[in-house]
Amino acid sequence: MSYPNYDIIIVGTGPAGLGAAFHLVEHSPSLSILMVDREKICSGGLLNDCKQNYTFPIGFDVENWSKEEAERLLPLVEKWLQPVIKEKQNIEIYRRRAERLDTSLLDVRQAHVGTDRSLVLIRRLRDELSRRGVQFLLEREVTDVFDNASGTGIVISGTETVGGGKVIVAPGRKGFSFLQQVMERMGISYIDNVVDVGIRIETKHENYPIVNDYYDPKFLFPNNVRTFCTNSGHARVVLERYQGFTLVNGHALSEHQSGNNLVNFALLKTIGLKDPVRSGQQMAVFLARLANEIGGGMPLMQRVGDFRMGKRSSGDTFNEDLYDFPPSCQVTPGDLGLAVPAKIMRHLWEALKRLDTIVPGILHPSTIMYYPEIKMYANKPTFLDRHFRVSANVYMAGDGAGTSRGITGAWASGIRVSEGIQQRTDVDL
User: Fold this and answer.
1) Would you list the domain boundaries of the chain?
2) pTM value?
3) Under CATH, to which class is 6-87+112-191+379-423 assigned?
4) Regarding beta strands 135-138 and 33-37, do their DSSP bridges make them parallel or antiparallel, or are they unpaired?
5) CB within 8 Å of 25: residues ≥ 6 apart
6) 28 within 8 A of 419, measured Cβ to Cβ
7) pLDDT tens digits for range 310-343
């Protein structure tokens, strides 16, 4: 099958790709734009729960963003996503408790769509782009990107070539391996030494009542540990399948659905490796595969009560006594101490003890710790300019390229790319 050349090719239909596309069609409507994705529908964080944060630095890589730049673009993100901002109340008491423990509670403007309603949002966005002339090529996998003397473009399924004046590569977190391969083939240097490794906590709503006042409370603890992606209402822990391993994550349905009296959130430690370590991402892959190996091909889960007693969890410990709620995600009961590196587990446990003082109840014996939850978004290319350009005609943006850590930051990074394309008057599109 042959394809025409396009002015702009966008690899990935998540928030970064959508952010670039919307800005381009609004300010340069004559451009021909193609968006390509291996999934059958626009994907990324928009599809999974769709939690949005509109306060810097949440969701932004501070090495590439200033507060002023983020605040300039966040209203443009808000324009298209049309969020309903959640109200917060009664958080001062939690903030005071946190400060006494050398911990910070951030005040963040947030919105939440819910896994059950995210498809409605995605279809609205895709239909609007289609109406403005953007073409979509879904369920087709991009296997390479090129920018050389013979032209610029992409390769699909290893054989089909599509030419483009400019290519925006925004594959998201799951595309970290693809992004590395593209950078290595194109000779683009990159830094891959930062990764987030942690656990997902699941407990009853009554054990974490702060969510009544603050939907996704953002705590920053010592030792580079933080809470991330809190879900309540109808909340559940879910599996994320990658090539060769499986991680855990958390979702929640919208407020239109009845609740299940559960809360879950991630507790993540950011690890910055030093030379001569080559790849934080590969370290994370090894940790994930080790956990899956111990878990018989699945992630692990352990009750807090068992962890405190120094014994592994088993199927028998998930009973109707103290352990009075079933796990929302059936993975392998076991011992996290066998899988989580000791230093990481120590810092996570110290953070949990602080959190239990700030919000008493989180360390109830029935609370479940799932492992591994790992965020693969730290492939940071050497950018040629502030618009995330990596070669003459190729740009990289979003979580997979390390420019962002969430929906709003990824969308904003796509806007910055499109601004750079529009400003480059030396290239005739």
Assistant:
1) 6-87+112-191+379-423, 194-375
2) 0.89
3) alpha beta
4) parallel
5) 31, 33, 129, 132, 133, 134
6) no
7) 999 988 776 666 677 889 999 999 999 999 999 9
